[in-house]
Write a structure and sequence with these properties.
Layout lengths: L5 H26 L6 H5 L4 H15 L5 H18 L18 E7 L7 H11 L3 E5 L3 H6 L9 E5 L7 E5 L4 E6 L7 E6 L5 E6 L7 H20 L4 E6 L7 H7 L5 E2 L22 E5 L4 E7 L10 E6 L2
Parallel strand pairs: 1-2, 7-8
Antiparallel strand pairs: 1-12, 2-4, 3-4, 5-6, 6-7, 8-10, 9-10, 11-12
Amino acid sequence: MEDNTPDTVGRRAVGLLALPTLGLLAATLAGFAGRWHWLLDLASHFRWYWLLAAVAWFALTARRQGRFGSACLALVVIANGASLLPYWLPTTILAGDDAAEPLEIVSLNLLADNPRTDAALTYLRHRGADVVVLLEVSEAWAEALEELAALYPHRIVRPRDDAFGIALLSQLPLGDPQVESPAEGPPMIFATLPSGQGCLLVATHPPAPISAEWSGRRDAQLAAIGERAAAEQQPVIVAGDLNASPWSHGFRVLAGPRGLRDSATGRGLQPTWNARHWLPRIPIDHILVSAEIEVLSRSIGPDVGSDHLPVEATLLIP
């Protein structure tokens, strides 16, 4: 005979409530184990979703959660909150160089089959940034970008028939521009900007982590850029669609060697993908800078028909 006493029913309710709680805990812990498996790393991209879900779930079930469930939810909130906190904490302002001119930079994944070329071109023309990094540049996009030739006389455009065409448009002269294509990765652009004491700009769009192979290629490309940045004596900027959130393994291997920092730090979460939907909406387009570069502003641009939103930053290079 089934036991339906109040104590038994209560224990069953607590057990059912524990399932979503344990799921949130597992997803959170998986995100910290991304270096061991690419599927685990995928969970790292959604830290703010895990945090909000844990807070909402606790608010709905606080009176029914047992001690164990409450402790698990607290761990989810603390672990994810600690990862997100730097994006809301004030950042240290460097001593500015009065002689330095601010550098405005935009990074935008155009989306190869985006039909709204006029919207993107109008945005870029109106924004008038000093330097523009463009991803998913197809032959059609390369042709459309010719309309900006007068505004951006210094340009490197490498269209492709897949999602990995790339372009760098600049109002400033580009020193020693190079396009490097790793054996198992999309092309990257390296160029020296004349701002301040000189600055290495790296434009990149590594593969999306949709399989073990592609995830490995992404991490290898980001690690190579991180090592290149660490070997540089001049300031470094890395911009592009990295297909990596700030909490993923690939992002950490990029930032680690030189101590590159996310220009969004201290300015709140600024998710860029997927621009067409709110779920998911995560930050995978980035502008990273070395420690000596001061970030004067950083924001997200408007919808230009792509599934990514533009990233905008104003930097002061010593």
